[in-house]
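[#protein-structures] MJ: dropping dTDP-4-dehydrorhamnose 3,5-epimerase family protein here for a structure pass
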Amino acid sequence: MKVTEVPAIAGAYLFEPTPYADERGFFCRTFDADVVRSVGLDPDAFIQDSVSRSVRGVLRGMHLRSGAGEAKLVRCSYGKIFDVVVDLRPDSPTYLGRAFFELSGEIQATLYIPAGCAHGFQALTETADTSYRIDRPHDPAEDVTIAFDDPELAIPWPLPPALMSKRDREAPSLAEALKQQES
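AK: finished. structure tokens for dTDP-4-dehydrorhamnose 3,5-epimerase family protein:
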């Protein structure tokens, strides 16, 4: 498994497996505690796994957690997504840095997103399953949502949004969301 640091987001990593393919399909390891540990992360810190299924054009994000935040491992297990991470940690050397990835079920790469970073994605295929492994229980009271189309973020979403949750459609701007977090 190859590990690459994400230059635009301090502390973020991309884990790329080495698949074994033959006429049956492929096999690959998508999580390896020793590899995760080799970059200074605690593999035992991840306590909850979730999956979402989206249809082409669905946009989910931009989301983060207030308080202690939430670190996560994100992987597209089926289909293809355009994945976005924005560093919102004021003390980070990459504060307001943005990184974009195309994650797919064909490659099975996993993205580590540090706590304090906003995350969102858009489904690029008719069906896209996205798997998450997070480091603390979900608490809806800590949900923070930022407008996906905030000009300050200038995210180049590849498709017009087909479907979004009401929460995502009505999300405040980055400046408003940050102000709400401070109070």
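MJ: nice. The chain has three helices and 13 strands.
AK: one more thing. The radius of gyration is 16 Å.
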